[in-house]
Design brief:
The protein is α/β, with parallel strands linked by helices. It is built from 7 helices and 16 strands. The two termini are 20 Å apart.
């Protein structure tokens, strides 16, 4: 099994390994590198409250496959369990769903129900609608109230398991290419992600998707000057992406229906003949899937800072500057099903990143020495 949740060892060991020798990495001499601006870490939690989301983390592998047999005469395809990589793999998985349906046989006489209006459901609905197939989206919540809205937005296959490397590389290639092609109207921009160590989630990507990183003797920050790396990736801003997907589907006369499904048997009475299940963590109950777990993550939202045009992930946290906010994250709480942020954890996340950028943090990389809430995998 080839895991994509590198460094995340609470429930699974043997996370993604990579070969440091497979490509020579140029050394970037710091005297010729511009110093990047340091974020302003001032935070008013009353004016800008923190948020929390529940990642749908599935053991062994995410689920993208047809149901073993028809349910009430309906053909069902599952697409859930992508952990912290939902936005990252969304378009690639949507195209895989299309491949599954094409193999089964599909025509404009078929009607399709997509369950779930997070990024997985909306991208599936989009690729189907782009092919003039009749689609209706059913969901308990719609943007801006979905779990996908509570995401940092970096393109990286983080906290996701898989058991088919060939298929997963295809998903990553298709996802990256489609995000890149959609571009700024969908909230997508190219960014460098600066890291303190080689990042397993990037290293396990095909090199034609994420090239070998640049290496720095000293990272290009005023106080964050230890050795590090820079990976060329994408920033995908969830508020822009999800609003754009929703607006385009509505403009294409795709109906959005508020409905919560409690069990898979409920699809029997639907008018649609094909069902695509993209309910994320909801599939834990819907499909009685005990391999699906919640991994809670909290985000501190600082005021936007337009001079920050980079991403940073390291020291068990991250800084993702977006147009709506500078997003500070770095927590993961296994099987915590509360989407209420813990203020103490949020303050620790913020202090962690502030201390790092200001040169006052005590660096600690031993997994066993870290608090339970600290993120291992971004």
């Amino acid at each position: 099994m080839r895991l994509r949740c590198a460094g995340w060892q609470r429930t699974l060991k043997g996370a993604a390994q990579f070969d440091n020798t497979r490509q020579e990495i140029p050394i970037m001499p710091s005297p010729h590198t511009a110093i990047l601006p340091t974020p302003v870490f001032d935070w008013d939690p009353v004016a800008r409250p923190p948020i929390a989301g529940l990642r749908p983390y599935r053991l062994e592998t995410f689920r993208l496959e047809p149901e073993s047999g028809p349910v009430g005469g309906k053909f069902i395809v599952h697409n859930y369990g992508h952990g912290g990589a939902g936005i990252t793999v969304s378009w690639g998985c949507a195209l895989e769903v299309l491949d599954v349906l094409a193999k089964r046989g599909i025509s404009q006489s078929d009607s399709i129900a997509v369950l779930g209006a997070g990024v997985m459901g909306l991208t599936v609905a989009t690729v189907l609608r782009e092919r003039n197939l009749p689609v209706t989206v059913y969901a308990k919540k719609f943007p801006p109230n979905t779990t996908s809205n509570v995401a940092g937005g970096q393109w990286a296959p983080s906290m996701i398991n898989q058991n088919d490397g060939v298929r997963f590389d295809r998903i990553l290639r298709r996802a990256f290419a489609t995000h890149s092609a959609k571009g700024p109207p969908f909230g997508v921009s190219h960014r460098d992600n600066y890291t303190l160590t080689r990042a397993g989630n990037f290293e396990s990507c095909p090199r034609d998707v994420i090239p070998a990183p640049r290496q720095f003797n000293h990272l290009p920050f005023a106080h964050l000057t230890m050795p590090g790396h820079a990976y060329a990736t994408l920033l995908v801003e969830p508020p822009i992406l999800l609003d754009k997907l929703s607006a385009d589907l509505t403009a294409s006369n795709v109906c959005m229906v508020h409905h919560e499904f409690q069990s898979l048997s409920q699809v029997s009475g639907m008018k649609e003949t094909i069902i695509v299940n993209c309910t994320g963590l909801g599939s834990r109950q819907l499909c009685q899937d005990n391999k699906l777990h919640s991994v809670k993550g909290e985000l501190v939202l600082l005021p936007p800072q337009g001079n920050l045009q980079y991403l940073f992930a390291g020291h068990h946290g991250y800084v993702f500057p977006r147009r709506d906010a500078v997003v500070i994250g770095g927590s993961e709480k296994f099987d915590d099903f509360s989407d209420t942020p813990d203020m103490a954890t949020c303050r620790r996340i913020l202090a962690n990143m502030k201390g790092l950028f200001e040169g006052t943090a005590a660096l600690m990389f031993a997994i066993d020495a870290l608090p339970d809430w600290v993120m291992r995998s971004k």
